[in-house]
Amino acid sequence: MASSVLPLRESDIYAPIAQWDRKGMAMLTGDKGIYRLGLHWEYALARSGFHVFNLDCAIRFNPFVITNETRKQNIAPEPLLESIFVQRAFTPYQILDTLYDISNHVAENTIYFLLAPCKQFLDGDVQNDEGLHLLHKMLACLEGFHAKKIPIVVIESMRYRHENFQTFFPKLLNASRDLWELQIDDGLSRIKVRKVPELSAA
């Protein structure tokens, strides 16, 4: 059962992605378990008939999370997995090139997921000034996704201590139209809606 992965009711697990209007950038952050939660969301979207494109920047995609869900529901995993595409990226430039390509060639009926994008920009092989500059280029690209209403979910941890991350992460949060935070306290989990601009502005 899904709650064996995350101590959440099934209705709580899928509610955010079910209520999302898919018109721009959303973000999932928070405690350990965010990538597994995101994969549950991908499973739900694929079952609903969407194609899912993962840009995986830190080897966070795990197909067994999805196949386990198909077995619980007694459905064949192969057709579902065929609608979920994974592309790995190992440098900031590969990430940016792929985001630019997606922005210029948007696929129909596709939801995009960006998994752990900041990690490569914080790598020791990347100079601090260059890394921060490239992070802001990524942010500009994601803001372009939002302007074009390209549905993308960014999944990123809060845990990096790198000074560039501390500078950049609040800007990434503020750029997210829908923002969800997975919180775990004393073994209990909840998904908190941290900010939805349309509601907070009302």
Short description, anyone?
The chain is built from eight helices and seven strands; from the N terminus they run αβαβααβαβαβαββα.
Question: How large a portion of the residues is in β-strands, by DSSP E?
Answer: 15-25%
Structural class: alpha/beta
Largest sheet: 7 strands, mixed
Tally of alpha and pi helices: 8
Please identify the oligomeric state.
single chain
Mean pLDDT: 90
Low-pLDDT regions: 1-5, 197-202
Gyration radius from CA atoms, angstroms:
16 Å
| Shape, principal axes of CA atoms | globular
Task: Enumerate the strands of the largest sheet in spatial order, edge to edge or round the barrel.
Answer: 3-2-4-5-1-6-7
Sum up the structure in keywords.
7 strands, 8 helices, 7-stranded mixed sheet, 202 residues, alpha/beta, globular
How does this model look, in words?
There is one protein chain. The N and C termini lie far apart (38 Å). Helix content is 45%, strand content 21%. Strands 3-2-4-5-1-6-7 form a seven-stranded mixed sheet. By secondary structure, the protein is an alpha/beta fold. The chain has eight helices and seven strands. A hairpin with a 2-residue loop joins strand 6 (178-185) and strand 7.
